[in-house]
Amino acid sequence: MAKFAAVRQGSNLKVVDDEGRDVIRSLRINTPVMIEVKQNRSVRQHRLWWGMIRKVHDNLPEKLDTMWPRPENLSKAILERLGYVDELIGLDGKIYRQVQSISFDKMDSADFNDVIESAIQLVIEVIIPGIDREGLMDEILDMVA
Fold first, then answer.
1. Are 139 and 52 spatial neighbours (Cβ–Cβ below 8 Å)?
2. Core vs surface per residue 8-26: b (16+ CB within 10 A) or e
3. Would you put residue 120 in left (φ > 0), alpha (ψ -120 to 50) or beta?
4. For the whole model, what pTM was predicted?
C-alpha cells in the first residue's frame, strides 16, 4: 500500500512531493484504483490535547491530585475511561487493558476532534465538576496560541 501527501485543488487532488509523483507514475493508465482519504492531524491539535491535559492536571481537586502524579497518567486515565483501550491476554491468562495510541499516524483529524470533545466533557462532568467549559477552552486556547 502506498501513502503520499496531496492537497485538494477544486475537485482534484494534487500530489505535493516526489514520493507521491513516483506512486502516481507507477499506476497503470486507465486502471481504477482505490483511494483512502485520511486528513492528517495538525500540530495545533496535538498542542490542544496536551494543553488541556496540563491545565486540568494543574487544577485537579486535592483528593485526585495523588491519583495522577504526572500529566501523562491523567491522559491515559482519560483515554481509558473514554474506551480507547485494547484488551490483551497475558501469558498468565489474565486480561489486561492497554490504552490505545492517539499518535499522529494512529488517528486522523476528525477522530482526534471526537476524542478531545469527549475528554473535555469528561473533565467538566467527572474530574472537575462545575468547571466552566468556555473558560477552560479559553485558557487552553491561550496556552496553544
1. no
2. eeeeeeebeeeebeeeeee
3. alpha
4. 0.70
